[in-house]
Design a protein that fits this description.
2 domains, 37% helix, 7-stranded mixed β-sheet
Length: 260
């Protein structure tokens, strides 16, 4: 478990339990007491007020009055929230959408201008469509946690990505591509990329990607991705869904160009 995920686990435990000893926290996240103390120090540097009382009856406690508003939301974390909302919205499964949008807008306003610019650039790479009802979903797997931070770096700096990819037949290959977009066809997510070795676009199911690495020094140019009419940028999603609600449903293909 990475330090970021471990610290988020500690915060959840403290919110849920109110207080806990260092030993209890160490056992729950499966690390040493020293690592827990180091993580508590890192969380304090991020703005969380965490009290530790030594001696019998003491423990670690998160001040509930300061844990809101002081947390530093990263661009990748906010992007993950936005694309999760986009996925649910496209699947017509987002109740209380207005409240969710209002909450995200408030979080966005806490970002400094450079981070907000990065978020807008990432959203420009996000497209949402509707999956064919004939698509086989029996082999969906869990996506790796490392994917989104790697994508953030690759998309913002226009750097190539290298990863292992397992195709539909189970064969594994090493790929190096130029990421151009993220496509969501709920519940499937795809990395849309230009493959220099094939001189063509390819889409890679993100649950089949492992060991992603950003290739430093290998920059690329943006390309116009040939999406179908059923696929739209995130910014147009709400308008397109409103239009679709007024029309009779029609059969849609899963994806417009060669798969891997």
């Amino acid at each position: 478990m990475s330090s970021r995920l471990r610290q988020e686990s500690l915060l959840r435990l403290l919110r849920r339990n109110g207080s806990a000893t260092v030993g209890e926290l160490a056992e729950l996240v499966n690390v040493s007491r020293r690592t827990v103390l180091r993580d508590i120090g890192a969380l304090r540097e991020q703005g969380y007020v965490i009290q530790t009382d030594c001696g019998r009856g003491g423990g670690v406690q998160l001040d509930p009055g300061t844990m809101q508003g002081t947390a530093r939301v990263s661009v990748a974390e906010l992007f993950a929230l936005v694309i999760s909302m986009a996925t649910m919205r496209a699947a017509r499964a987002l109740p209380f959408a207005d409240l969710a949008d209002t909450g995200l807008a408030k979080v966005e306003r806490t970002l400094p201008p450079d981070k907000l610019r990065d978020l807008r650039r990432l959203l420009a790479c996000l497209h949402v469509g509707i999956l064919s009802p004939l698509q086989d979903l029996s082999d969906i797997a869990r996506m790796e946690e490392a994917l989104l931070p790697c994508f953030e770096t690759a998309f913002l700096r226009q750097l190539s990505l290298r990863f292992r990819y397992r195709d539909a037949k189970g064969a594994e290959t090493r790929r190096e591509v130029e990421p151009q977009a993220i496509l969501i066809l709920p519940p499937l997510w795809y990395l849309v990329a230009w493959d220099p070795s094939r001189a063509d676009f390819r889409h890679f199911r993100m649950d089949r990607i492992s060991a992603p690495v950003v290739v430093e020094g290998k920059q690329f140019r943006r390309r116009n991705v040939p999406f179908e009419a059923d696929v739209c940028p995130y910014a147009e999603l709400e308008r397109r869904l409103d239009d679709q609600n007024e029309k009779a449903p029609r059969r849609r293909r899963a994806f417009p160009y060669p798969s891997t």
